[in-house]
Amino acid sequence: MSAIHFYKYQGTGNDFVIMDNRKGQYDFLTEEQVHFLCDRRFGIGADGLMLLNNYEGYDFGMKYYNADGRESSMCGNGGRCLVAFARKMGLNSEVLRFMAIDGPHEATMKGTDWVNLKMQDVNGVEIGNLYFYLNTGSPHFVKFVDDVKALDVFEEGRQIRYNDRFKAVGTNVNFVQPTDNGIFVRTYERGVEDETYSCGTGVTAAALMASGPEEKTYTVPVQTLGGGLEVRFTKTGEREYKDIWLCGPATLVFEGEISTPAK
Q1: Site Could be important to modulate the pK values of the two catalytic cysteine residues: which residues (predicted)?
Q2: Which residues constitute the domain of residue 13?
Q3: What percent of the chain has pLDDT above 90?
């Protein structure tokens, strides 16, 4: 059994196990052990797990695993939580720069738990019959609906995620409803294989698709099951977006020690 000192963070209900791995002490983790740590009955319970790593030329590196134990693509809420954790671990630059699987990011904090995270530019969106498909660091299927609160997100999302096109590598599926001043988003996440309370890259994708035809700067308030976020960006072409910022809370829930099963 190997003991782990962990921290549990959440950003609008999207929750994560985080470890400080800057000395490489948690490089031993296997897919099975990550899955155990994220298990809500037998482990700590989380939508994903992250390691805070050293990365030359940056304040830190981000390594992200889905709850199924597999290393995955970019997680926006995870990135925001890791920034808050990095601050707690003593990385106090006004602008924190880090490397993730989709490339470099930068972030700032307002107060103790509000994180503004810069996302990658988006160039190109597939527009289909009643859907959009784009990559905001992770692949996202976006569909606008009339009554998002009444929707069976697990069943509807699972059907799309496991259809013939996506079943091999998966996609995240977002259902979006316009509100008086923004949008309401619910997301089925691959790797978790269920609805999560919030998905940062999904919220980002939905906000981009909710913008109007004008090429200008937008600020889109977003409501999720776990709370409110804000996405700011500039539309520079019909399907081109830059200077994208995902903004919202990232808070420490608790920290503790746990032993992982043998490899």
Answers
A1: 140, 189
A2: 2-118+250-260
A3: 97
pTM of the model: 0.95
The answer to whether residues 53 and 128 belong to one domain is no
Which pLDDT tens digit goes with each residue over 133-156?
999 999 999 999 999 999 999 999
CA–CA dist 90, 86 (Å, integer): 7
The Cα 37–Cα 41 span in angstroms is: 10
| Token couple for 244 | 């994208």
Q: Show binding-site residues for substrate.
A: 14, 66, 76-77, 172, 189-190, 200-201
Q: Are 67 and 132 in a shared domain?
A: no
Assess contact for 83 and 115: CB atoms under 8 A. yes
Provide the domain count of the chain.
2
> Which residue ranges make up the annotated binding site?
14, 66, 76-77, 172, 189-190, 200-201
- Residues recognised as catalytic: 75, 199
And the tokens for 76? 């926006």
Local confidence band at 92 (pLDDT 50, 70, 90 cut-offs): very high
- Nearest Cα to Cα of residue 14 among 231, 205, 181, 187: 187
On the question of pLDDT at 263 being above 70, the answer is: no
Q: What is the DSSP letter of 129?
A: T
Length of the chain as a residue count = 263
